[in-house]
Amino acid sequence: MIEKQTANDQSLQQKNTLFQKNTDVNEAPVTIAVVGTSMISNTFIESVEQTSLAEVAGVFSRHTEKAKAYQKEHSTYKVWETYEDVLHDADVDALYIASPNAFHFAQAKEALEANKHVLLEKPLTPTIQEAKALVKIASDNNVVLQEAMRFMYDSGTEQLQEALKKIGPVRGGSFSFGKKSSRYDELLAGHTTNIFCPRMAGGALMDTGVYPINAMVALFGEPSDVSSFAVTVNNAELVEKAGGDVSSCSIEEGAIPPVIDISGSAIFTYEDKTFTCSWTKCTDAYGENYGGGVIEGEQGTLRWTKIPEPSDVVIHYHDGRIENIKALRCPTSKASKGDVNNMKFEIEAFAKRVREAQIAGRAPSIPENQITEIVCGIIENIRLNSGVVFPSDKEQMHA
């Protein structure tokens, strides 16, 4: 049984307000420092080019040479030598933090306490205790904290909510998302990579499982119970077999087995319905765009492809009718050869909130953070049930 964060009926009432459009704020663009130089940071920068509400001030990385590489294509970007330099830069309104999951809490905490607004990549934190702490710190310092969860802000999600009203009482369904990682073969070869390293709070659940679970909770509230299953590997065994240095993946000098999940699934129980969620980073999830959602109602079944981007919603009615619902897509950015990730929507929601906070002198409430906390709790529960332990778990036990 997972610990309840809010009652189901309250969650269902709250979700109806989550996807309403923010009031336009016609001000200068919000200046954002990008923390991290992974692929998602590149996509973020491209997506910022799609909106006039935000602009990239510069890039920070623990490895300065990686950040300086960005200047070859973006000569106007700043590169900060230390994280403290970013936080003390008066030209920076906010931070987009896309560093490894293990650094999310500490980096976001420092930024919020320095009165910087934070857009923090999913999952917000590895534990619910850390998630709640960040939400409180943001409130205490009157700044915006928002998780970069694309499903929550995509225009297609609003249409998905409307479409749900057409299929009658919902009784169940399934959500899946996953793609074989380009780093998976490296893992099997005994190399330590951030995405599959427990020290970095990686794994399939943290990287891809968060998407289907978030979509389920956003649409239907908190479940009453969960049963989970996972496929895991032991990093130390793989490294040792390859003749490598086991200390590269050990936790507390080998006291904790460095187990990481590569795929998994869970069954979620509600009072009047059940759902399954599945995720993977060692195979490609079935279906177009690596998985999707299926919601079964008494009058019809609704489905869409690619959990984070519900661009094509289809309803198969019980009487044989089929209805196709097309969602608004992002325009192509100047830096892209095709459609850019729908991060544009979350960026604009964040930028409007930052400007509102700056103009009103008070940060607006963010109801999505209640869903974020619930999801963090569910993920932590599933992860520990799978034997996947992160350094932050031990830190909380010692505290």
Spatial sequence of strands, sheet with the most strands: 8-9-10-7-11-12-13-14
In terms of per-residue confidence, which ranges show pLDDT below 50 for 5 or more consecutive residues? 1-25
Number of helices: 13
- Strand segment count: 14
Largest sheet report: 8 strands, mixed
Average residue-wise pLDDT: 88
Q: What is the helical fraction, as a range of percent? A: 25-40%
Label the overall shape.
Answer: globular
Give the N-terminus to C-terminus distance in angstroms: 24 Å
* Proportion of residues in β-strands: 15-25%
Question: Would you kindly provide a brief summary of this structure?
Answer:
This protein is an alpha/beta fold.
What features would you highlight for this structure?
399 residues; alpha/beta; 8-stranded mixed beta sheet; 6-stranded parallel beta sheet; 13 helices; 14 strands; 34% helix; disordered N terminus
Describe it.
With 399 residues, the protein is of the alpha/beta class. The chain contains 13 helices and 14 strands. The chain is globular and about 65 Å long. 49% of the residues are buried.
Topology:
Blueprint: H1 8-15, E1 30-35, H2 39-48, E2 54-60, H3 64-70, E3 78-79, H4 83-87, E4 94-97, H5 104-113, E5 117-121, H6 128-140, E6 145-148, H7 155-164, E7 170-178, H8 184-188, H9 204-220, E8 225-234, H10 235-241, E9 259-269, E10 274-280, E11 292-297, E12 300-305, E13 312-317, E14 322-326, H11 343-360, H12 368-385, H13 391-398
Parallel strand pairs: 1-2, 1-4, 2-3, 4-5, 5-6, 7-10
Antiparallel strand pairs: 7-11, 8-9, 9-10, 11-12, 12-13, 13-14
Helix pairs in contact: 1-9, 5-6, 6-12, 9-12
